[in-house]
Amino acid sequence: MPTMVNAETPVGRAGAVARLVAAEPGLVLLGGLPGLGVTTVLDDLAADLAAERASILRGRATPLDRGRPLATLAPWLNPGAPAGGHGIATTAAAVAEAWSGARAVLVDDVHLADDDTLLVFRAVAERRLYDGLLVLAYHRGPGDERVQRTFAAADEVELAPLTGADPRAGGNPWLLARLDDPDLGDQVAAMLPADEADVLWWAAALDGVGTTQRLAAASGRTPEAVAAAVTALRRRGLVDHGRSGLALRHPGLTDALAHRLEPDQRPRLVELLERSGLPPRLLAARAPYTAVRLLDPARNRAEYAAALVHSGRAAEALVHARLPSEPLPPPLALVAAQAHLALGASHDARAAAGAALAADPPEPWAARLTGVTAIAAALDGDFEAGQEALAALADTDDPQAVTYRCQVLASVSYLVRDWDAALAQLAAAAALVDEAADPAAELAGIVLKASCLDPAEALTVLESARPLAEQVGAAGLAWWQLVLALMLYNVGHWDDVLTEVERAAPHAEGMGLGQPLHALAALVAVHRGDRTRSRASVERARELAGSTRGIGLFYGGFSVVAEAMSAELEGRYDDALVLVRGIVDGVVGVHQGSTVAGVGPRLVRIALAAGDRAVAEEITAAIEAAEGVDGAGAEMSRALLSGDPDQLLAVQRRLLDLGAELEAAWVGEEAAKGLARAGRLPDARATFEPTVEAYRGLTARGELDRARASLRDEGLRLGVRGARTRPGHGWDSLTETEARVAEQVAAGRTNPEIAAQLRISPRTVQSHVSSILGKLRLSSRVEIAAEHARRG
Fold first, then answer.
1. Whole-angstrom Cα distance, residue 772 to residue 491?
2. Which residues contact 721 (CB under 8 A, 6 or more apart)?
3. How far apart are CA 80 and CA 144, in angstroms?
4. pLDDT tens across 244-300, in order?
5. Four-CA torsion 128, 129, 133, 137, nearest 10 degrees
6. Between β-strands 104-108 and 56-60, what pairing exists: parallel, antiparallel or unpaired?
């Protein structure tokens, strides 16, 4: 991490400005407690640099709960750039391009920015994409962990406490004191009008469930007075509306205010919530942090334990749920089973639920416990027991039990690749989310839904569930992280995959999902030809094989594919074949059909490269049985077996429509080989060019090197394009593919039409269009057409 300033002790504002003015180009963090004048330092720095006639860019982070992902970077991104939290490397390059020519970029309040924005800043620094001074200012205190974690290797300039009054050192007017100061609540309240301070305090006590009516009942004020105070508090940026009620925007402030609750006020608020339609069970699900503060652990033992599970504290919940007598009462048994599931211990979940079911509990507890049993059995791969549990749930109408039933049925449909049936079951479960009162099940439904969608759409769905995943924690968070990394891999955002693996691995490894996560990192390394990293990631995945459990077992195929492709990269085809046969023989993964269908075409390609056509045919038959003969995987495998260029090119077009760029490149490579074998070298070269561009676009250097060698074996020699110096802007800065895309845009063709013409995916076309707009300093396709016409 390039940093230019190393302050062993905090410095004053004048010293900070002096250090920053003298700093060499690179990244500098500027940190200080709220109220110390961090913004003032930026103002003074900007003034000093302006005096030197330096070009300066200023920015301020957009709070992560407002606007779209990367909103902080919007002033420096093209209007056509993606709005989602994906493509960190691409976004970093675009931002750095926008900054070119500026001596310094000063960004304030980065502790408020979303995670992806922080990762973009880090990527700019690590890759040295910007040759000026990048100053990121943030407030120290609770909530700054994300900044500290993202820039862990960075030194920083830290502001010292003020020694005297300075009217300019206001900082954030609502967080003047230390965020971990126990008197913070009193200090903030003292700055507010009495009515706002009172409503803010009650909103903290009912954080997440404080509707206008409930706040009025709690505070003794009229609903109109509460509504007016809430409007003012929202305007001040202190509160916002959540799904079930008003929520404070700063957890530290919530804790500082809520700790003032008197013991006798807690049961009164619980009673108030129950009268308003929110009993303890629903409170625990909708606002688990508030439930932990309000509920009496003895009086509401099961609901309190459930709140612990729902807020990512499953291990504590198990301790709290234990009773000297056995079996546990049904409510506690259900919470214990949920806690075991949250920790990835499906066997223990079945045992806890089974012990309670043996005592013949009443409804709806019997149905809920049976539903948990069905979930746990499915995770164990015990489909017979899962079907028995489902049969017992056929007539239940309890929302929580129905949710479990729908999710198990959706899982079965997913395994046989019946996406429509799976999505229909998940939609039925989603309609019951408020009544079911199980955040972990809600998250599971969202992750499973994302797994059934196109990767680009899946990423949007997953990002929307980030707050829920972080709340639920445990195995639910680990599964969410794994599927997010998988979808990023599928759309070719490989730098982001490695970032997610680095970020998620410590937690996922403890939840039994570390093996497939490291396998994804190994696959990225293989595609890029990085043998050292592929070996290290494969070895780490092997080490974690014994600890893989629960949902992680369903992703066993990725680990084998990663190891087989790593062996192929190193020329160890016999080892690769042994691994492929393991999947074919059904010794990998929980559900053989799903495992083969998910990774089958890759296995076919490896088997053919190793010279074992019989294994390739066996895999193809298994894919057809799993997804049907019309499935994309089955069609790709048959085309690979045939080697027919026309058949391969037809499949390539289908894969590009699906956004499967890597697989499309593989197929294009095979088509070029077939044409070369037939002596049609000009056609082979023309067919291979888009494949080269695709591999380059994916930074798949390993795939490109392997493909070049393979084509040479077929008599087709391609020149190696060395590094060329291109200007940063203007038509001469466009790559060959970008120039062809610009020509097509000028002709009025749509992205799908251009994709079909150039045999690349529509997503890649959009990426090229965005790059063209940036390089030409234009803002629309119309302007591209006009500029193209002017060039003749």
1. 21
2. none
3. 31
4. 999 987 777 888 888 888 889 999 999 999 999 999 999 999 999 999 999 999 999
5. -90
6. parallel
At position 242, the amino acid (one-letter code) is: G
Q: Letter for the amino acid at 384?
A: E
CA angle (771, 486, 558) in 5-degree steps: 130
**Confidence (pTM):** 0.70
pLDDT digits over 524-536, tens only?
999 888 899 999 9
At residue 33, φ and ψ (nearest 5 deg) are -65, 150
How far is C-alpha 555 from the geometric centre of its chain's CA atoms?
A: 18
Q: Which residues of 637-657 are buried (b: 16+ CB within 10 A; e: fewer)?
A: bbbbbeeebebbbebbebbbe
**309-319 average pLDDT score:** 94
Using a 10 angstrom Cβ sphere, with 0-12 exposed, 13-18 middle and 19 or more buried, the burial of residue 431 is: middle
- Beta strand 246-248 with 239-241 is antiparallel
536-562 burial string, b = 16+ CB within 10 Å, else e?
Answer: ebbebbeebeeebbbbbbbbbbbbbbb
Contact (CB, 8 A) for 785 and 751? no
More confidently predicted of 395 and 43 = 395
Q: Which of 784, 775, 788 is nearest to 751 (CA)?
A: 784
The residues, ordered by sequence, that sit 6+ positions from 775 with a Cβ below 8 Å of its Cβ are 97, 728, 729, 730, 733, 734, 738
Token reading at 36: 């110390």
Where b means 16+ CB within 10 Å and e means fewer, 754-787 reads bbbebbbbbbbbbbbbbbbbbbbebeebeebbeb
445-486 confidence digits (pLDDT tens): 999 999 998 887 888 899 889 889 989 988 999 999 999 999
User: pLDDT grade, residue 594 (50/70/90)?
Assistant: low
What is the maximum span of the chain, computed from C-alpha positions, in angstroms? 88
Is the preceding omega at residue 364 within 30 degrees of 0, hence cis?
yes
Question: What span, in angstroms and rounded, lies between the C-alpha atoms of 538 and 518?
Answer: 7
> What is the rounded end-to-end Cα distance, in angstroms, of the chain?
46
pLDDT more than 70, % of the chain:
84
For 473, phi then psi, to 5°, come to 60, -155
Write out the two tokens for 511: 């939840």
Q: How far apart are alpha carbons 422 and 406 in whole angstroms?
A: 9
Closest by alpha carbon to 733, among 685, 692, 771? 771
